Each structure stands twice: as structure tokens, then as C-alpha cells.
């Protein structure tokens, strides 16, 4: 099939979940004659603005995919893309990637722009969280940064404070801007994961990582697909459009009254438990590139 299609070049700035991304690269090349060009330096897999400029000039890149671990150096990537290639479309927008790097930014966005989605109450300062704790609110404390490289997911959770003494002990040694505080809604054996690729949505079950000293058997680790409430599905899709993410993942829990509470959002998740994601993501990449090329070639008057 590839020899019947003109070669398409896509740039990638990706340094996490590379196993699934490599599968997408192979699928795109085999089925759509799409070459995904690594815009990170091959020797070190780090970003270099001069190398980025060189690659963008060398290849007629139609799309850029940004899929990053959260690091301070990412700011140089965002700045360079905005300055050097502002007219090249991105899979998920830079704004979306930046927001998802921070739990605080994600919560603020939902509170301000997606008010129909329920999230646990967020406290935006140590003082507010401490006051809530002193008034009987159980507070979960996490590192604010999302997708920290080489840090297990359990280690991103500092702890759960049921009183001020516990709270002060947990936050000791941290800077305020390093931490994220939310009302802890309780222990849930099961969390739910939603994966979105354009308008394709699937939900699976997953065990709660907050549970301590839990040794799960292989059978217990099996992810089971479950139906997703249509109203929640519409709200999740609307959230993706507002933030600028056609490909993303959401974790949520169900409260005792059945209310879904979003507890995590991830731009371009790993899709490890979704085998068809490789072909769906690849199909979507091809389709949006073709649509964009057609819009460029069609005169504005003809488009109406």
C-alpha cells in the first residue's frame, strides 16, 4: 500500500512511552507511507533548537507530535516550536501538553472551563489545605508535576493527611509550588480509565495505586472494559476539544452516590491495555494530515 501513497513526513518530540510510540511509527510507515522524524538529537534523545531547525528545514513536516516527560527544559521546546514552526499543526496543542504537566493547572482549567465535570475539591495553597484539614477535611497530597521521569507513580503521592499534625509532617521539606492538595474522597479498590482517540472512547477498570502493601495476582491485574455513561462521555469529549487534545486519557472514580470524579488527565497516554490504539492513532494521524493538506490546496473561495 505504501508505494501507492506519497511520502508524508511527521516530526516527533517524544521521550516517554516509547514502546507504544515505536509501534505507531511502524504502523504509519507500513500502511500510510508516513515517516516519523525524530526531532530530538539521536545520540542523547535531548532537545536542541539548532537540530530542530535543521530537521524542520530538511523535511516537509506536516505535523508535529509532542509527548514529553515533565521537565523544566520543556519550556525551551515550547518556545522553539512557537517561534520556528508556528504554522505546522500539532497533534495535541502545546497548551494542552503544558496544562497536563501540572495537576494545579489541570484542576484550574476544569474548574474554569469544564464546570460540569466533577473533580475533588482542590486547595491552591498550603494554608488553604491546612485550614481544610484542621476543619476535618481529609487531604491527599501529591507532587504537582505530572509524568516525572524515572519516578514510580506511587512515589508521586506524598500521603494522606487526616489531621493537621499529619499534614505538617507530610509537607515538611517541600516547597509550596512542588505540591498539589485535594480533598481525599476515600479508598476505592477500583479506578476507571478512559482513553480517547478523536471521537473513539473506551473505558477500562484498573486497581487503585494508592492502596499500600497490595500484592495483586496476574488475574487481578487484568483490565476489564466497562460501559461509559453517555453524559460523562460527552463531557470528556468536550473537555478534550476545549483544552486542545484529540488524544488523551482520563482516570476517574465513582463516589457512593454514583458521581464520577476525575482524578487524573494525561495527554497522549501509553494505551498499554488498548491493543487497537496503535491502528486508531495511526489512522487519525493520517486523516488529519490529509485533511490539512486538502485545506491548504483548496482556495479559500472554493471552500466557501
Q: What can you see in these coordinates?
A:
Helix content is 37%, strand content 23%. It has 304 residues and is α+β, with helices and mostly antiparallel strands. It has three domains: 2-91 and 275-303, 3-Layer(aba) Sandwich (Rossmann fold); 107-118 and 187-267, ATP-grasp fold, B domain (D-amino Acid Aminotransferase, Chain A, domain 1); 121-183, Dna Ligase, domain 1, CATH 3.30.1490. β1 (8-14), α1 and β2 (34-38) form a beta-alpha-beta unit. α1 (18-32) packs across α9 and α4 packs across α5. The two termini are 33 Å apart.
Present the secondary structure layout.
Elements: E1 8-14, H1 18-32, E2 34-38, H2 49-58, E3 61-67, H3 74-84, H4 94-101, H5 103-113, E4 122-123, H6 126-134, E5 139-143, E6 157-161, H7 164-171, E7 179-183, E8 190-197, E9 200-207, E10 225-226, H8 230-243, E11 247-254, E12 260-267, H9 277-297, H10 300-303
Parallel strand pairs: 1-2, 1-3
Antiparallel strand pairs: 4-7, 5-6, 5-7, 8-9, 8-11, 9-10, 11-12
Helix pairs in contact: 1-9, 4-5, 6-7
| Distance from first to last alpha carbon | 33 Å
Q: What shape does the CA trace take?
A: globular
| The CATH topology of the largest domain | Rossmann fold
**How many runs of DSSP E, i.e. beta strands?**
12
The CATH architecture designation of the largest domain is 3-Layer(aba) Sandwich
Relevant terms:
single chain, 304 residues, alpha+beta, Rossmann fold, D-amino Acid Aminotransferase, Chain A, domain 1, Dna Ligase, domain 1, 3 domains, 5-stranded antiparallel sheet, 4-stranded antiparallel sheet, 12 strands, 37% helix
